[in-house]
Amino acid sequence: MAVALAAGFAPPDRPNALAGLPLPNRVLIWSGRRLPFLAKMQFRMMSRLINGSNTEKALRMLLSSVPDVDKTILQNHDIATMLVTSIQEGYKDWHGPFQDGMLQVNPWYFDIRDIKTRVDIWQGDADVNVPLSSGQYLEKTLPNTRAFYLPGKGHFFILENWAEVLQKLIE
User: How far does Cα 47 stand from its chain's mean position?
Assistant: First the structure.
């Protein structure tokens, strides 16, 4: 048995966990840790923005916040429509994304070194949402890993590389 982790978060209480993250991400993490009611308001606002827009407008909002490497992937209309529709569905009720966010930014209360299952770590080195240091930390800390660092790839690399990830997973 094995697990593939694509652009996966590392524990939020590790050293330098916020290094390399854009300011909006750091603000959301800070508010989630210290002022959860503020984070709740941010998630509610995101839900309204995402679902109060048609797919094209939501795509324009998404494109305004991602690096060029991810914009290139989202130039494929089918991929972009699938991703935006998926995000809109996930944000129909902001409670789920808020709870996910709180799990990502607060201590995990378990030691990841206790995970014995093989974890394949897939990380683009141009990802601004989950920096390369996150994958490197996981590779260094988890006891049974294979790491695949993808030069020039961003957060949405999985939308193009899913077949390779799945193929490696079953090896």
Answer: 17
